[in-house]
Amino acid sequence: MSIDRVEASAPGKLVLSGEYAVLAGGKALVAAVDRRVSCSVERRNQGDWSFKSEGYFFESTHTVDGLFNELPDGDPARFVARLASTTALPQHVAVTIDSSPFYLGKEKLGIGSSAAVTVALGHAIAALEGQQTDIEKLYQVHRNLQHGVGSGLDIAAAYHGGITLFQNGQATTHGIDSTVHYGFSFSGESTQTPHMIARFNKWCGETPPASLVNLISAANDVAEASLNARAFMSCMNDYIQAFVELDEEAQIGIFGPAHQTAMGLAERHGVLYKPCGAGGGDMGVAFSTDDQALTRFQRSVEEQGLNVIQLEITDDGVQVRAGH
Fold first, then answer.
1. What distance separates the 2 farthest-apart alpha carbons in the chain?
2. DSSP 51
3. Which of 107, 189, 247, 284 could bond to 254 as cystine, CB 3.0-4.6 Å?
4. Residues 6+ apart with CB under 8 A from 38
C-alpha cells in the first residue's frame, strides 16, 4: 500500500563555538534548539504539485516535470528535484512548509531554517517514495542550494539533535557540563550568512592567516574542554578573544553593533558572550556558571532593546510520521 501523507519536522541550530574555524578544519560545537520546521507532503487525486510555506511566505504550482527545471532561489519547489531519489514522482502532491518559529516578526532569527527545511522535506519526500534519505545526500543538497557555501554543521544539528561536535563533515554526539548555563538573544537584524562567509573566504586565501590558526586552536580547545565547566569557561574566553581578533583583522563585520553592546554588558555582569554562527546580526549566546549573573545580563540586554529569545537545546533531531 502506498503512503499518502507524510509529516516531518526538524530543529533549528545555534553554533556554540567554532564558527569560521570549522570552515578551515577546526572543531565546532553546534546545538539543536527547540524551534522546529514542519513539513507535510500529501498525495492528491488531481492538480499539479502545489507549494505553500509560512514564516517564509511563498506559494507556487508546478507540473511534476517542471520541478526539474531551473527554479527561482526563493521557490521551495527547487528542493524537490535535488531531494527526490527518483524522477518517477507522484503527479499530484500538496507540500506545506512552516518555518514561522524561526522568525521574530518579519525578521529571520538565523537559527538554520534552510537546513531544517532540507532535512525535514528530504525525509518527507523520501518516505512518500517509500525510500530513506541519508545525511550525506542532505549535506550535498544543502550545499548546492547555498551555492557551495557552508560546512554542513546546520544539517548535522537538524538531523541528529542534541549537541554535536562537527569537524570536516563528520558529526559526533557531544555535550557540555550541566553546570554551564546559557542564554540566547537576537540582535534585531537578520544576516545573509553566505555573504559573510564569502568575505571570510576572500580574506582567508590559500594559506590560513595567523589569526585563523589561533581561532582553530581555540575552537578545538573549547570542544575538548566542554565537559568540565571551569575549563570550558576558560577556553571559551580565549576563543572569544581569538574571534574578536580575527574579525578585526579580516574586517568581516562579525561583531556588529548589537553584538558589541551585548559583549560590553556581558563583561559588566561577569558572563561570556559571543555571536552564534556568521555574526553581523542574527543570534548571540551568553555562558555563565552563575545562573543569577546570566539573568542579570539578560535583563540588561532587554533594557538595551535587544531580544532575549527563550530557546532550549533539544535532543530531538528529525522526526517523521507517515500515514495511508
1. 63
2. E
3. 247
4. 7, 8, 9, 97, 98, 120
**Dihedral sign computed on CA atoms, order 164, 265, 191, 105:** positive
Helix (H, G, I), strand (E, B) or coil at 171: strand
- Structural contact between residues 267 and 241, judged by C-beta atoms closer than 8 angstroms: no
pLDDT one-digit tens code per residue, 290-302: 999 999 999 999 9
Residue 45: other Cβ atoms inside 10 A = 6
Report how far residue 66's alpha carbon sits from residue 47's, in angstroms, rounded to the nearest whole number.
13
Contact 162, 285 (CB under 8 A): no
Whether 176-309 and 5-173 are alike in CATH topology: the answer is no
Domain edges within the chain: 5-173, 176-309
Q: Is 237 exposed, middle or buried (0-12, 13-18, 19+ CB in 10 A)?
A: middle
Q: Grid coordinates representing 80?
A: 524537490
Query: What's the Cα-to-Cα distance from 81 to each of 45, 129, 154, 170, 248, rounded to whole Å?
Result: 21, 13, 21, 25, 41
Nine-digit cell at 220?
578545538
What would be the CATH architecture of the domain defined by 176-309?
2-Layer Sandwich (3.30)
Residue 207 is placed in which grid cell? 594559506
Q: Which residues contact 183 (CB under 8 A, 6 or more apart)?
A: 285, 286, 294, 297, 298, 308
Classify strands 93-98 and 49-54 as parallel, antiparallel or unpaired.
parallel
Instruction: Select 5-173's CATH number: 3.20.20.140, 3.60.15.10, 3.40.630.30, 3.30.230.10.
Output: 3.30.230.10
Residues in the chain: 324
Count how many Cα atoms sit within 13 Å of the Cα of residue 99 in the half-sphere of its side chain.
Answer: 27
Backbone φ, ψ for residue 205 (5° rounding)? 65, -160
Q: Quick: pLDDT tens for 255-281.
A: 999 999 999 999 999 999 999 999 998
The mean-pLDDT minimum among 48-62, 69-83, 87-101 falls in: 69-83
Question: What gap in Å lies between CA 113 and CA 10, rounded to an integer?
Answer: 9
Q: Give the three-class secondary structure for 153.
A: helix
